[in-house]
Amino acid sequence: TMQIFMPLNFLGFVYREIRSSLANIENLFNLLAKQSAIITTTSNKLSVTEGKIEFKQLGFYYRADRAILQDVSFVIEPGQKVAVVGESGAGKSTLVKLLFRFYDVSQGEILIDGQDIRSVDPHSLRRAIGIVPQDTVLFNDSIFENIRYGRPEASDSEVQQAIELAHLNDFIQSLPDGHNTQVGERGLKLSGGEKQRVAIARTILKRPPIMVFDEATSSLDSQSEQAILNALREIAQGHTSLVIAHRLSTVVDADKIVVMGQGRILEQGTHSQLLALNGAYAALWHTQQRSHSQNTVLDNTHG
Ligand code: ATP
Fold first, then answer.
1. Which residues have CB under 8 Å from 247's CB, separation 6+?
2. What is the per-residue pLDDT across 217-257, written as a single tens digit (0 to 9) for each?
3. Which of 236, 233, 161 is nearest to 201 (CA)?
4. E strands, the chain, where?
5. Which of 270, 267, 269, 216 has its CA nearest to residue 246?
6. Hey, which of 28, 68, 131 would you mutate to test ligand 1's pocket, going by the most ligand atoms within 8 Å of its Cβ?
7. What is the spatial distance between Cα 241 and Cα 232, in angstroms, rounded to a whole number?
8. C-alpha of residue 240 to centroid of ligand 1, in Å
9. Are 182 and 99 in contact (CB under 8 A)?
10. DSSP for 128-161, written as a single string
11. 167-219: per-residue pLDDT in tens?
């Protein structure tokens, strides 16, 4: 049963929050996750045993006259890393929104360890999934507390360990006040790559069985990029992960790459299988090779 009992001033808060953080899905999901009234609740908890995710013949429409996703099927086996690539507007972020039940599928189903995600309590679903968004919100607090936000009850030594795994230690040591350096709107502004590593450290602390990484489209210097790739490998260990990728360097080691175009899957396979196919993925790869740059973004049409 659907229950709506939120006070109007809270709705006003949600509205302002959504407006101010449209790009930040993590924040939005956290906000929605706190409000059980927004989505139908069931007491069935998601039980993640292995971490297998199945996207089965998904169809999704915001409006009946335009399909955003059509017949999208792929599987992420337990512990695998699957990357989704494709032109801007292909539907990559929509997949993540559906996985979090920000929206429900119009056709087909998403199963986690055999459970249709519509049949489980959304809180338990969101607790099982950690997301590293493109743009991370930093609070007006120290960098250390910003990382602890991943799991507020974590001890100092657990936070420190996450900092090391996220390859943030040298960076934090170089700050004027080290761990106590104030960040956020009123403090030090971090670069895109540094913010993504803060998000990775938060996710390491949260230790979710399933990980979603929405790679920032802005180009990074190769040192930041390498630090992010190393940190990603750390958190992906033993976790099922879905990566929305814009750079080839992020996808070459994936167990599977799903290539999307106009809401459909064009190809799927490993890097070498897709190169051998000589289709859409190979074309993206050759475009990148021609540009002679490690940092070229796959979808150059993106803002
Ligand atoms: P990018 O690489 O640019 O992030 P993407 O592959 O992630 O793109 P999506 O963000 O999933 O693409 O968008 C897929 C399509 O859905 C786009 O055509 C977009 O315009 C459309 N879309 C996204 N959000 C909405 C919405 N709230 N209402 C209607 N259409 C939407």
1. 215, 225, 295, 296, 297, 298
2. 766 777 778 888 888 887 788 899 999 998 888 889 999 99
3. 161
4. 53-63, 66-76, 81-86, 107-112, 115-116, 129-132, 141-142, 182-183, 210-214, 240-244, 256-261, 264-269
5. 216
6. 68
7. 10
8. 24
9. no
10. HEEEE-SS----SEEHHHHHHTTSTT--HHHHHH
11. 899 999 999 999 999 998 888 889 888 898 999 999 999 889 999 998 877 66
Rg (CA), the chain: 19
Interface predicted TM-score (ipTM): 0.95
Q: Which of 149, 130, 129 lies closest to 138 in space, CA to CA?
A: 149
CA-closest residue to ligand 1 atom 31: 62
Question: 0.95 cut: is pTM over it?
Answer: no
Which residue is it, tokens 């996985």? 99
Distance between Cα 89 and ligand 1 center (Å): 5
| Selection from 111, 101, 102 nearest residue 47 by Cα | 111
Tokens of 271: 């890097």
Q: Which two tokens stand for residue 217?
A: 């489209």
Instruction: State how far the Cα of 167 lies from the Cα of 197, in Å rounded to an integer.
Output: 7
Supply the residue whose CA is at minimum distance from atom 3 of ligand 1.
88
CA of 62 to the centre of ligand 1 (A): 10
Instruction: State the amino acid at position 302 in one-letter form.
Output: H
Out of 92, 299, 300, give the residue to mutate to test ligand 1, the one with the largest number of ligand atoms within 8 Å of its CB. Answer: 92
How many whole angstroms separate alpha carbon 303 and alpha carbon 5? 39
User: What distance in angstroms lies between residue 241's CA and the mean position of ligand 1's atoms?
Assistant: 21
Does any ligand 1 atom lie closer than 6 A to the CB of residue 103?
A: no
